[in-house]
Amino acid sequence: MIDRPRDADDKPDDSEDQPNNEDDRLETTDDASLGIGEGAPAESDDDGVPKESSDDGASQESSDENPSEEATEAPPQAARGIISKGPRPQFIEVRFKGKRSDFFTAHVTPPIRLREFVVVEADRGQDLGIVIAADELARKKCEACEGCNKNSLPAKRVLRRAAPLDVERGIELRSEEGVIRRDVRRMVSEHKLKMKISDSEWQWDRNKLIIYFTADKRVDFRVLVRSLAKKYRTRIELKQIGVRDEAKRLDGVGRCGRELCSSNWLPELKPVTLQLAKDQNLSLNPSQISGACGRLMCSLRFEHDFYVQARKRFPKEGRQVRTPEGTETVQAVNIFGNRVTLRNESGELRTLSLEDLKRETAEARKSARRN
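Above: the chain sequence. Below: its structure as tokens.
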């Protein structure tokens, strides 16, 4: 057989078939960047912190040899941790360690019940929590929080119900956190950082370790993050919180002898000012109106509306009222006892109920009209 020489027009155009390497090159960034300030995550650094080894090379070779197997034999949904969608999505609230809670959407059959442990989506992994509210109750609690979209379900999902082994693993992680907290405090002392370590928390899949701390000023904790990443071989997140949030996480007993409102039922912590104590006629002594965290009590905030509405039924202090006794000045009001204290022109004080005060002022007006 004689080969016919190929013309110049028959040559393949390499410029059209081959990809442009400059345009198609992907730029990768190290996700273990370190930061200064609140919530700066870090995995490793340039000091050569070793990472967990994987069989990426072997898996790559097997995929190159049989490129069609990966496309034809896809893993089932259960292997990827995805639950098939049920007939009706559930709106649930899940609580984690430190009274931290979040809202999720569940597509699980049968429906999830209260006090059940579930595995949910978390930041680059999975976390374990317990269901504290479901359906309409969870939806109302979500609407009470700021920034909640009332017309849509939460973006985060419940992956599955937790198995007994999952719960045991979570208990083991909780037992390790006390030792971690002491080790971090020792490192803080060695690096001479002005920060107070409050708590530590493992993510359930051990992909992240969160360290909570309080500080008066901004702290440069980059050296501390490197030491922690080198020791625990995981992603480290140092999160600065306030003293109110610290009391909420650690829990405690208030002046009333009951559990702290912030850790028991308050959905969010709002600012508390001294003006709230003035409006409620409370003592301005800080030792009497401060809570376990050393700041003004949260009750001053959520009880303020009650005081404002209740005082509308009473005359303002210092106001002069006309009664059969003459012109008197309102000296004080007791909204709980429903009583008013009056002072006449000679300085004498008398206390009567709000109904009696209204009756006397009405009689004084009638007598004034007759005259």
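DSSP finds 14 helices and 13 strands in the chain.
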